[in-house]
Specification:
Strand content: 15-25%
Largest sheet: 7 strands, mixed
Strand order of the largest sheet: 3-2-1-4-5-7-6
Number of domains: 1
Order of helices and strands: HHHEHEHEEHEHEHHE
CATH superfamily: Vaccinia Virus protein VP39
CATH architecture: 3-Layer(aba) Sandwich
Distance between the termini: 37 Å
Number of strands: 7
Structural class: alpha/beta
Length: 269
Amino acid sequence: MQYDPIKRSLGSVFNRTPFLRKVFYRLLDLLLLRSWHIRKEIKSWNTTSPADAKILDAGSGFGQYDFYLSSLNPAWKILGVDVKEEQIADCNNFFKAINRPNVTFTIGDLTTYTEAGHYDLILSVDVMEHILEDVKVFENFHASLKPGGMLLISTPSDQGGSDVHDHDEEESFIEEHVRDGYNIQEIQEKLKKAGFSRTEARYQYGKPGQTAWRLSMKYPILMLGKSKLFFIILPFYYLFTYPFSYYLNRKDVNTIHASGTGLVVKAWK
């Protein structure tokens, strides 16, 4: 199914006031397992991060990670880049309204965007599965990092990412993806080809996370795709299912998985 129309509908609801947008970010942090994994990695990076770090959110979307990063340290300079003009405008308006001038957003194509030796951290969450020219993007990331800078990626794996399994007739749950997922060795080899000196990768969305994702994201999105009337019963749905999703998300984040439908990848210049 196409995910972007549903994202636009959600944006139209939660963009009405800064308070609603903050509520939206909080809901994303609670519901999205990838957010649990990314925030864990950012907290780890923050233990040795520069006080005046420069950060690129490559494919910033709704800007939820920029909100989290700017909450950790108001001295960090954060730039969000995305190809969607409406999301860039919404994010700039929101961060201006809440008086966070250290966070800005601009339209940009990651296959061409570089700022040589500028960033301490580059964040790329659920982006690379949308871009065919991935090695070119990795080269741009490498060029844009300072020496010692880190790239943090979250992306589907080839172990059933985007809810694709072993059957030829099955397609990605999200039609906008150009690949269903990365092999864990493949993505590290591509990063080294792009110039990165060291890489680490681990699976996310093991068995607990896969169940939590279906409960908290897939089934609600499928129902919203059929009818916007589901917005009315969505709070009651989550009231019943979220305790299970919360437990499963915690279990997924705190477990080392032999395989999983998602990957968290780190690479250093």
